[in-house]
Structure formats: structure tokens, C-alpha cells
Design goal:
By secondary structure, this protein is α/β, with parallel strands linked by helices. The chain has two domains: 121 residues, Rossmann fold; 103 residues, OB fold (Dihydrolipoamide Acetyltransferase, E2P). α2 packs across α3.
Amino acid sequence: MKALVIDDSRLARNELKRLLKEFDTVQVVGEAADANEAKEKIEELKPELLFLDIQMPGKNGFELLEELEFIPEVIFTTAYDNYAIQAFETNALDYLQKPVQQDRLAGAINKVLEKQEKDRIEEGNEDYMTENDQVFVKDGESCWFVQLADIRMFEVHGNYTKIYFEDQKPMIPRTLNYLEAKLDPKRFFRANRQQIVNLRWVEKIEPWFSGSIKIFMKGGNEVDVSRRQSQRFKDLMSF
């Protein structure tokens, strides 16, 4: 989930970005110090989530939202508590007071994820692609029809995602979050911010740093699983 941090305080932006590093589901794609810069970044980067300060020089956070044609999900971050009612009237998903606490941030992000899942179900996207499905992959002049079962891994590469199958590594203009929503979670596992692995291609697993694990894939790739996702992997595989 791509996120944009909007706050006139550089220290506040840095602190929030530090806290967000603990969440594999959130990728901070940019930041802005005022409403005008934020509007440009939103139009350019198309984030799915805004962490939005209210009081800023020039236009405030509410005025920024009024100017947007498409409004991403919004979590307000502010030093004041007297804007809460107005914030929720704008359909914000949560309202965090500074200094932002990790547990409150986790709760706010969970609200976003739950809403996204509900939206996917309502849109009829709850049917995952299975390993038996075949997909069309095009990279430049080269094209392939690939069965999902043959894909070992998906990996972020700039604004593209690299697909590993056979001896090929083509890149497609899709985000990892988009692919994660399409793929069967019983077969494809989000190991970290950068990679999704096909569990059928896992050769062995070893303990790694601070309670995390490392996955060794058939074909030679090694994947460091984040601490948070390491626990999910152990639960999924019944360790």
C-alpha cells in the first residue's frame, strides 16, 4: 500500500516514516511539507493512503482534500484534538495525535487494510488466481504465457515488478500490492516489502537475525523474511 506523509514539520515526517518501517504492508513513496506540494505528489505518485497533518502554512489539510478529484484513504496526524469531529466528517479512517504512538498507528493501519479487504470483496475480487491459472507476461518485444505454478518469485524493481520463472526475469508495470491482492495467499507469501515467494518453490528455511528467518528457493534465490512476516510464515506453515 503506497503512502504519502504530509506534514510541515520535517521532524514529524521523519518520526512517522521511522514508525512505518515496521509495517510491511505500507510503502512510503513520498512526503510533502504543505498542501500545494502534497497535491502535486498525490497526482504524480497516486498513493493509496495519506498521513495528513491538519494545520500547515497556507492551506490546511481539510482544504487540500477539497481540491482533490480522487481522495485516497486518509489518516489525520495532528498535535490538536479539537479537529476530530471535522476529521471524521471527511470520512477519514482515523485521527492520530502527535506524538504518534506505535500501537495507535498499528490500529489505524489495520482499519485501512480491513476497509481495502471489504472493498475488494464488494467489487467481486475475492476470487484469487490459483497456481493453475495461466498469465500473459509482456516485457518489451518479448511475450510469455506462464502458469502461476511455474513462477518462483515476484520482486519489486523500481516502479515495476520482476517475475522469476525458468531462466527468465521479465518486468511488468504492476505493484507488489496489486499482485498480492490477486494471488492465492495459501500459495504465494509476502516475505517482505520487496518480495512475494511461491511456497512450492521453497527448498529450505533457516533461522536468521532477531527471530526472523531466511528462505532458500529452488533455483538459488535467497529471501530474507521480515520479523513480522516471519511469525506469519511460521503460523501459516504450522511451525
